[in-house]
Specification:
Layout (H helix, E strand, L loop, with lengths): L1 E6 L4 E8 L7 E10 L1 H5 L6 H22 L9 E7 L3 H18 L3 E5 H7 L3 E2 L12 E6 L4 E8 L2 E7 L5 H11 L6 H9 L24 H14 L17 H4 L2 H32 L4 E5 L6 H13 L3 E3 L11 H9 L21
Parallel strand pairs: 1-4, 3-6, 4-5, 7-10, 10-11
Antiparallel strand pairs: 1-2, 2-3, 7-8, 8-9
Helix pairs in contact: 2-3, 4-11, 5-6, 5-7, 6-9, 7-9, 9-10
Bound molecules: 5'-O-[(R)-(carboxyoxy)(hydroxy)phosphoryl]adenosine (KG4) and zinc ion (ZN).
């Protein structure tokens, strides 16, 4: 079975083709095309939804054509179209949803509307040529860490999942991004903080680890962000530390700093990263223990973070639990993960009944 995936929930326009068969434990990645309007947004310091959607209108057809071409297939040979219908920016979602509906109507291809967050988890079920052959065993715990979400999910088997908890305020990625902005760096701030952290001491600043000891599986990162803000104000009084005052095209603070200040910057970034990872790893391992899972799946844009990947892998293996994380290019938004989620949770919906749902979430029962 060939599935064409379409993903347009945020600033990316993605299309991908995956292949799966009845006994597949992972799907095969045939093609994966992404066009991002990120450089456009760095001029404005963040994503302007209207601008993102305008770009997506231009790119959606060429991106789909390219995905089919590089898969050496035609739309008529596609067995189903998987599309992200939420959560995300309404204007962006609509581009993908309406395109998929039109293709479904014209070519009579079944549609599988898919939750973007489920897609992130299923990036772990995509087989690459480098795949080690290890199968994901259920039950599993999935930690989703992206720019907008931080969630712990229990997967009993395909199609049977339970939301255990999520963030009460900022997501982990949002905390990285907002702290980076305080220092003058553009979106996405996570990779920049991670890069600066490499040169710093993670124990230099005792930043808070909100809710690390709470009995539930909830998260909170806004207090950590505030602690980082106060430290920034104190250590770098010359820096602009509120959003309004930051002018987006005058950055590169690192180069402007004195050597001793540079080390403070590195230490602050290393300590921030350490605090975020500490909370994520502790809660995930706790959930894994409570539900006696056999696998831990890391996913979402923040899963591209080297230290998080390494630390969660170490702790999983210490607890005798298999650990999985997608290759970095499948951690950030892409259409292959949407097609993979659709394959394992196949639920066809008539095109007339498919609508974008910007605030879609997991059923929290
Ligand atoms: O999943 P994603 O591509 O988009 C959303 O659905 O939000 O995640 C983007 C997030 C951003 O917050 C970005 O800063 C973060 O992933 N991110 C990282 C790293 N790479 C991307 N955070 C920490 N370390 C990284 N290496
Ligand atoms: Zn995402």
């Amino acid at each position: 079975m060939l599935i064409l995936g379409i993903e347009t929930s945020c600033d990316e326009t993605g299309a991908a083709v995956i292949q799966g068969s009845a006994k597949s434990t992972k799907v095969k990645l045939i093609s994966n095309v992404i066009s991002s309007s990120l450089s456009l947004h760095s001029k404005t310091g963040g994503i302007i939804p209207e601008n993102a959607a305008r770009e997506q209108v231009k790119y959606i057809i060429p991106v789909i054509k390219e995905a089919l071409k590089s898969a050496k297939t035609k739309i008529q040979d596609i067995d189903a179209i998987a599309l992200t219908y939420g959560p995300g920016l309404i204007g962006s979602l609509l581009i993908g949803v309406e395109t998929a509906k039109t293709l479904s109507y014209i070519y009579n291809i079944p549609l599988i509307p898919t939750n973007h967050l489920l897609g992130h988890i299923y990036a772990n079920f995509i087989e690459l040529s480098s795949w080690s052959g290890n199968d994901i065993l259920f039950p599993a715990i999935a930690l989703i860490v992206s720019g907008g979400h931080t969630d712990l999910i229990l997967i009993k088997k395909h199609g049977n999942i339970k939301w255990l908890g999520g963030t009460r305020d900022d997501a982990a990625g949002e905390c990285f991004d907002k702290c980076a902005r305080l220092l003058g760096y553009n979106y996405p701030g996570g990779p920049k903080i991670a890069e600066l952290a490499k040169k710093g001491n993670p124990k230099a600043f005792p930043f808070p680890r909100p809710m690390i000891g709470s009995r539930d599986f909830e998260f909170s990162f806004s207090g950590l962000k505030t602690a980082f803000l106060y430290e920034t104000k104190q250590r770098f009084p010359i820096l602009r530390t509120s959003d309004e005052q930051i002018s987006w095209n005058q950055i590169v603070l690192e180069e402007q700093l004195k050597e001793s200040h540079k080390h403070t910057l590195y230490d602050m970034c290393a300590s921030l990263q350490h605090a975020i990872i500490d909370v994520l790893v502790k809660k995930t391992i706790k959930a894994a223990g409570k539900y006696q899972v056999k696998s831990i799946l890391l996913s979402g844009g923040v899963a591209a973070n080297e230290l998080l990947r390494k630390t969660l892998e170490e702790k999983s293996l210490q607890s005798n639990i298999k650990f999985f994380v997608p290759p970095k290019f499948l951690c950030t938004d892409n259409a292959a993960m949407i097609a993979a989620a659709a394959f394992f949770n196949y639920k066809q919906v008539n095109w007339q009944k498919v609508d974008a749902d910007p605030s879609l979430y997991f059923n929290q029962s």
